[in-house]
Task: structure prediction
Amino acid sequence: MPREPSASVQAPATPKWRRLALSLAARLKRHDLIGRLSPGPSETAALALREAIAHRVPPLRKQVVFLIPLVGPDQVGDWQGVNTRLRATLQCMIAQNDPHWQAIICCQERPDLPEDRRIHFLPFADPTPGNDKWRKLATLYRQFDRLDTGPCYVMSFDADDLMRQGMVKEMLRRQAPGGYLVEQGLVMDDATGVIARADTPTLKEPGRKPFWKLCGSCAALAHDPDLPESARFLEQMTQHEHRMFPYLARLAGRPLAPLSFASVLYVLNHGENFGARRGRVGFKTRFVERFRIDDPEELARIAEGFPLPEDHPAP
Result:
């Protein structure tokens, strides 16, 4: 029987063969086979949500809620730099041409936040040692319903990623029943200023990767606060790495629709990246060099899409 991950460890990914078997068993409604496959906590939550929404008409989603786990000051070498990058992330939200969004930041210490009624702070006081990103995400998903959001889209968003103009507007205009996946995105090496496009691989460029395989700020899930299964699923899903998100959303009966443009920019090598602490940035740096964008007109269009504070370098 799969075990719950420890407080400081990310939940392991399900082997691909078992993902396929569980997905097929769910589509065929083979509950006997599902039981023999021993689904983990996230898969159990996904299947419970699948049952809860099976005959339910999706409600209108009226806003997008961003949940931001922020690294604590005791875990970084440059807390001021962390604040600067967070302000840039929030400025991209404030500048959106659809104002119907909210953001909650969870951290041990309140950062320097803009004065905006849509931005909220959630204190984090869990003293358990070790990496606390997943515990912060769990805390956020347990608490965000206090905002009384109504039906909405919910997206975990890293505090150093940037959102392109128009993302909130597209989500609320299209009303995708399950939510959205960032397939097209941008990756910037902060050390060099080089920007690359992430997207689905093609025959011409088989080595290119979709954005959701590179960055955790990649999935906005439809959420109905009237269904307790919805919040439970969102909490369990984000205990995994982001490559599991599309599979778990499909298993929950909420497949994700791709956004129509490169809507998120992931910044590498700025000194405090979470991935760098795990030694997992090297291949992404090589990806940026391989798929770098050199066209000046395209780079100018990218820069226009990310309104940033004066103290933050433009992409």
In short: Residues 1-6 have pLDDT under 50 and may be disordered. The two ends are 46 Å apart (CA to CA).
